[in-house]
Amino acid sequence: MKRYGTPVAIGLILFINVWVIAGVVYNRSGEPEARITLTERELPKAWQERENTGLFLRLHWQMPGFQKPGHYNPEPGWFTRDKLVDLGFRVEMPANDTKAYDYYRHQLPRDAFIVLEMEGPTWNFWRKGAVDYYASLKSDLEKETDESKIQSLNRQIESLKRSMVTQSRLFAVDAGRSPSQLRERYPDRSRHLIVRGIVRIRKSVFPSGERGKNGKNEAVINGYIQKILIDQLHVPYLFRDRFFQFVSKPRYWSPARSRRAGKKNEMGPRYAVTLSYGKRYEPWITEITELK
C-alpha cells in the first residue's frame, strides 16, 4: 500500500492544480462580465507578513450613508425585511421580542451576490453629508473660545478633510441570489460590480436619545454584509516594479507634516487599477497606472 501513497499524493496535487487553472481560464474566457477602474482609495495595498513575497491589494468598500465619527446608525437602508426574505432569512419574530437577539443571531449566513457601485448616487450622498458636517464643524470652530475644544475641532476637521480625499467611493447598494436579475437592474458594467459575498441578519438597537422615540431605545431587524469573498487581489509580476515606483511617492496626512517636509500636502490616490470580472464573478488586475 505504501508503494502507491506517493504517486496518489502527486496525482491529487496535479489534479487540484489542473482544476484551479481550468477555473481561472474559464473565468477569464470571453468578454469580461464587468470592467472598472478604481484607485488607491478603493484598492489600497494589503498588509502582509514580512516573509510573504506576494503583493496584494485590498478591496475597500462602504455601506451607504454618511456617519459622523463616533455615531452608529443601524437603520436598514436597502437591507430591509423584504430583502432579507428574498435572501432566505426568517423575519417573523418582532424586533422588540426579548428572544429576538438570539433568534436572529443564530440564523445561518447566506451566500449572495452583492452589487458594488462606484462613484454613483450613494457616493454623492456620502460626500454631501461630509461637506455639510465640515461646514458645521467650521461654524462651531468660529464660535468656540475654549482652547481644548478648539484643538479638538481642528483635529476633527483635519480628519474629515483627509477622509474626503482618501475614503472609498465604492458602495454596496444591493444584494440578491440571482446575478442575472441584479445585472438587469444595474446594467452599467463600468460602474456596478456584481461580486460574491456572505450576508447575515441581526437585531440592532438605536442608541437612547439619538433616534429612539420618547428617549427610549428602538430595535430594528436589518441585514449586513459579513464578507466579500474575494476582497484581496494579487498584483501580477508584470506590474510589481511599476506599482512600487508609484507608491514610493510619500503621502503627507496633515498640513503640519507636509510643512515640516517642505512638500505640498498630498493626500490623494497615487495609482489607478483596472479590474475585470469574469464568468465566475472573480476579478483580476489588467492594468495599473500612475495618478498625477
From TrEMBL:
Coiled coil: 143-170
Membrane-spanning intervals of the chain: 6-26
Keywords recorded for this protein, A-Z: Coiled coil, Membrane, Transmembrane, Transmembrane helix
Family annotation (Pfam families): DUF4824
InterPro entries the record matches: DUF4824
Name of the featured protein: DUF4824 domain-containing protein
Gene source species: Nitrospina gracilis (strain 3/211)
